[in-house]
Design brief:
It is a single chain. The protein is of the alpha+beta class and 987 residues long. The protein folds into five domains: 10-367, TIM Barrel, CATH 3.20.20.300; 396-449 and 590-704, Rossmann fold (3-Layer(aba) Sandwich); 451-588, Trefoil (Acidic Fibroblast Growth Factor, subunit A) (Trefoil); 737-857, Immunoglobulin-like (Sandwich); 870-986, Sandwich (Jelly Rolls). Strands 40, 41, 42, 43, 44, 45, 46, 47 and 48 form a nine-stranded antiparallel sheet that branches. A six-stranded mixed sheet has the order 11-28-27-26-12-13, sandwiched between helices. Strands 14, 15, 16, 17, 18 and 25 form a six-stranded antiparallel sheet that branches. The longest helix is centred in the first third of the chain and has 21 residues, at 116-136.
Length: 987
């Protein structure tokens, strides 16, 4: 989901409560309420009792009560990425009354445990708490959970990197299956909750996210993007998918036919698929794909989505559009019945129509925030941490000998939440955790290492003052700089900073009219607590409001602060020239203070990182992977003052830590890890927990190592560890331990297997150190020879093992030949080729300890037969083309411009004629050249002229005679103008 948090109007809420509290007794004995009957029979019975209007009403996110049948409200969509989101409740005066849900580490942190068993326990805890919140208020917290996010972390600059698991589909599949299965519960027929995978498909950029198209050639779609979604559906851990905002090959994901076909083919269970928030309106708005909501909603339903998440609680636009579509013949009532049957199937499995709510019906509010869940949160946060570097055994710190510690950095005294976090029931900061670990006898010095400043307006010579208590509008007027005139400056990179008022410890933010110090942390959809202090040529500063761009659109063209007649600061100028000018007085130098604190300490722990609402998040990608400039300078100052410096990086994505890797003895990474962050960090730093987290993404050295964020072809662009051939800063799977592990010889149960065979790979792993520890044994494969480009390495299996000092365990991992298959574009099928595979085990993708060869007896992909109709998208290589929608309903085509080409390698030819289905909306003609051997210098076999067809979906057949199209050739279709081509033959 990706809109602001849903709110219920008072009138709607009262209506829903009435529906919940007044079941009709006459309905109690109807067949659909008999749990002894088969599920399908119960669903059909209830479906047959609903009127058409009642059925249509169930298609909206807020499914209203049907009182005559005793059916209550059902709300889809409770966010639950790392705990139940938005779990803070408020009374009528806006005061927090509950915030006791468990906040686990962010999703990328959960995956860094590489521990499906542990993540299953986390998912189960989240499922229990979702039931508890549902018991508290089903109007707000439904049992259809929108989690996990399984979009692959293909590009670390993605704003929502924190929400996903990994750049690898196998690891993502394992973790998502574990988390979803925990939330779903162990009963094979009933659901504790109904997990929904987000966001189908290839959703990995926020820039223009509702209008950009993810180009997925068939191999990438099958082997990579679909592969992340399939495991949780195939294992019945998840009960449906949410369609993404983006387009896929030119078609909005909201109307992808895959939703009703491919995805549903992965399981025999009934799935319940939903739209993302507001996505139905995008079809007629930003995407302009359909002329009316009637046509858009009809197409959405036919594509395989069952529920419309749109217009908040107002179902009227949706239901009206569906009724109109029925009256126009765009939909049949059977289409509505199909979707409602899917909806009801999930509601039945949730126990809604069973006595007592079914096997999970007794889970109540007491399940929320239990001591067991809090302990699990601490354990998970510790196991998620990754030791990136540990020169000279700097870590762990000995609590008996480390008695003077400096805890430094902007994240030492806070625990940040993110957009999809629950409310923190309590927060243990890094400083809190370290103090608790060392006890009262230790000396712990703390500083956030940030500058404290005062701003003096140049014209009047007076200072900016903030309010005390709950805060107040900032004004210029003070003649001296007391605490109400001082602000702590937090640097989040690229000039963006936040200002925390010393007067009350609250952050300054814009409230659509003035600037007020009233927020506990930067927050909200537009994050209106962001500023830039821009130095002017005369040495003064102009203050620029830097809240996210869409907020600017609402607040007008003025981005710079000015001073009103009464001294109040507001937005009053579009440029720095018209802005108020300030001198910046540095009351306390953060880096200097940090260096002083670090001098003489036994250890200096510097905690830096990101603010989840600022450094990339939903709707905003990152443009830099570097630490904030001020944070980098802080690390350098502390390192110069104390050689025993440990850097803790707390953020949600890979970071370019080149200087730190070269100069700092020890580096630990953690995601924003929830309420137990500080305790977990202290557990790791002081050795109570031996770190065993592993990276789930490649950490690159520079943004220059990455192509454009909109480049989705990981094969051609050599993206992710699968295809990247460069030297990363930290490899996929990297993570150190306080102990060491030795790998014995690799043993294969067989050196040769058939296409339907399985091999067991065994290796003895010994803990050769003096501490108990956990090793993540990772098994990779590489196919040495193939018709098609193959990954450099590909993860096929892994296992996390716990070993005492000196202990040896045999780790056995199974690999099926089917796991080694890839998508054959020549025949549109999975293929296991006859080939030798390198089977590798090790501690990361770059730390391979043992290797063996496995021969697979499969098949040889035959030469292409272009005499049969061939889809243009099934090319082997290309230049410049984009993938587009063949029609609005289904099919992919190639969109080309002058100079573009597509290749069909190894084609067996005996052809005299080229025939193609093409479209050209522009006036005039274009052409398709058929060449052999090379797209530029290759022999020209023929040329087909493409006339204007007047519309991109209006295809015509063109032909051309061929000369010399014999033998085995690499065939190129070279385009001389704008056109679309869907299929062709050389016959």
């Amino acid at each position: 989901m990706s809109s602001r948090r849903p709110l219920l109007s008072a009138a709607v809420a009262l209506g829903l409560v009435a529906g919940l509290c007044t079941p009709a007794r006459a309905a109690e004995d109807l067949p659909f309420r008999d749990p002894a009957l088969p599920l399908a029979q119960r669903v059909d019975d209830l479906l047959g009792r609903l009127t058409l209007d009642e059925k249509i009403s169930l298609l909206h996110q807020y499914q209203p009560p049907i009182e005559r049948l005793g059916i209550g409200l059902f709300k889809t969509g409770t966010e639950a990425l790392h705990g139940v989101a938005w779990s803070t409740d408020y009374d009528d005066n806006g005061n927090v009354v509950t915030a006791n849900g468990t906040v686990f580490p962010q999703a990328v942190g959960l995956a860094s445990t590489w521990d499906p068993e542990l993540i299953h326990k986390v998912g189960s805890a989240v499922g229990d708490e979702a039931r508890g919140f549902n018991a508290r208020d089903p109007r707000v917290w439904g049992l259809n959970l929108w989690a996990p996010v399984v979009n692959l972390l293909r590009d670390p600059r993605w704003g929502r990197n924190e929400e996903g698991y990994s750049e690898d589909p196998h690891l993502t599949g394992a973790i998502s299956t574990a988390y979803a299965a925990g939330m779903r519960g162990p009963d094979p027929d009933h659901l504790k909750t109904a997990p929904t995978l987000k966001h189908y498909l290839a959703n990995n950029n926020e820039i223009r996210r509702d209008t950009t198209s993810s180009n997925l050639r068939p191999r990438v779609k099958k082997e990579y993007d679909e592969a992340a979604f399939r495991p949780a559906i195939e294992s019945d851990a998840a009960t449906g998918v949410m369609a993404a905002y983006n387009l896929v090959n030119g078609r909005p994901a909201t109307v992808l036919p895959d939703l009703g076909e491919e995805v549903r083919s992965w399981t025999g269970r009934t799935l319940f698929n939903v739209t993302d928030a507001g996505a139905p309106n995008n079809l007629v708005g930003s995407q302009g794909y359909y002329p009316s909501l009637t046509e858009g909603n009809a197409a959405t339903l036919k594509a395989g989505l069952d529920s419309f998440t749109t217009d908040n609680t107002n179902a009227e636009p949706t239901t009206t559009a569906i009724r109109t579509a029925l009256s126009k013949g765009l939909l049949a009532e059977s289409d509505v019945d199909t979707a409602v049957r899917h909806i009801l199937s999930i509601r039945f499995r949730l126990g809604e129509f069973d006595p007592g709510g079914g096997p999970y019906g007794k889970i109540g509010e007491s399940a929320i925030g239990t001591p067991e869940h809090r302990a699990l949160a601490r354990r998970t946060a510790a196991e998620a941490m990754v030791l990136l570097k540990n020169a000279g055994k700097t870590l762990p710190l000995d609590p008996a000998r480390t008695r003077k510690v400096a805890v430094i950095g902007p994240l030492t005294q806070t625990v940040y939440t993110d957009w999809y976090s629950g409310g923190l029931p309590y927060r243990v900061t890094p400083l809190d955790g370290i103090k608790a670990r060392l006890g009262s006898g230790a000396s712990v010095t703390a500083t956030e290492g940030v500058d404290r400043i005062a701003l003096k307006e140049v014209t009047t010579g007076k200072y900016v003052s903030a309010g005390t208590g709950a805060g107040a509008a900032l004004k210029v007027g003070a003649t001296a700089a007391g605490d109400t005139e001082k602000f702590d400056v937090f640097d989040w990179g690229q000039g963006v900073l936040t200002l925390r008022s010393v007067a009350n410890g609250k952050y300054v933010g814009y409230n659509w009219s003035t600037f007020v110090n009233d927020q506990d942390q930067p927050n909200g959809w537009f994050v209106m607590q962001q500023f830039k202090l821009e130095e002017q040529p005369d040495g003064t500063y102009a203050a620029r409001y830097a809240g996210y761009e869409k907020a600017h659109d609402w607040s007008g063209p003025n981005h710079y602060l000015t001073v009103g007649p009464d001294g109040t600061l507001t937005l009053g100028s579009p440029t720095a020239e018209g802005a108020a000018r300030f001198t910046k007085e540095v009351v306390a130098d953060g880096a200097r203070g940090a260096a002083e604190a670090a001098k003489g300490a036994d250890a200096a722990v510097v905690v830096v990182g990101s603010m989840p609402f600022i450094n990339g998040r939903e709707d905003h990608d990152r443009t830099s992977m570097a630490l904030a400039e001020g944070q980098s300078e802080l690390i350098k100052a502390v390192r110069a003052a104390n050689p025993n410096t440990i850097v803790v990086v707390q953020n949600s994505y890979p970071t370019t830590l080149n200087w730190e890797q070269a100069n700092v003895p020890a580096i630990v990474w953690t995601s924003h890890a929830g309420q137990e962050t500080g305790n977990a960090l202290a557990d790791v730093l002081f050795g109570a927990v031996n770190p065993a987290g592993r990276l789930t993404q490649t950490w690159y050295r520079s943004e220059s190592d990455l192509p454009d964020i909109l480049e989705y072809d990981i094969v051609k662009a050599q993206r992710t560890y699968l295809y990247y051939k460069g030297d990363p800063l930290y490899a996929f799977g990297h993570g150190l331990s306080y102990t060491s592990f030795r790998y014995g010889p690799l043993r294969l149960s067989s050196g040769t297997i058939g296409a339907d065979g399985t091999v067991t790979v065994s290796v003895d792993v010994t803990n050769t150190g003096s501490r108990a520890g956990q090793e993540v044994v990772q098994l990779y494969g590489h196919q040495r020879a193939s018709r098609d480009p193959q990954p450099v390495k590909e993860l096929h299996a892994f296992q996390k093992v716990s070993l005492k000092p000196g202990q040896t365990r045999t780790v056995s991992l199974k690999v099926r030949a089917a796991d080694l298959a890839h998508w054959d574009v020549t025949r549109n099928k999975w293929v296991v080729e006859s080939a030798t595979h390198d089977i590798m085990v090790g501690s990361s993708s770059a730390d391979i300890r043992r290797k063996a060869a496995l021969r697979v007896r499969g098949e040889t992909i035959p030469a292409r037969d272009l005499s049969k109709p061939t889809r243009a998208v099934d090319f082997d290589d290309y230049q410049g083309v984009e993938l587009v929608d063949e029609s609005k309903a289904r099919g992919d085509a190639v969109g080309a411009s002058a100079g573009d080409w597509i290749e069909f390698a190894g084609s067996a030819l005996n052809a005299r004629t080229f025939t193609a289905q093409v479209a050209r909306p522009a006036a005039g003609t274009a052409s398709v050249q058929i060449r052999a051997g090379d797209p530029v210098r290759g022999r020209l076999l023929g040329t087909a002229t493409v006339p204007s067809t007047g519309d991109k979906y209006a295809y015509t057949t063109v032909t051309a005679p061929l000369t010399g199209a014999t033998g085995k050739q690499d065939v190129y279709l070279v385009f001389t103008g704008d056109l679309r081509i869907s299929s062709f033959t050389l016959g």
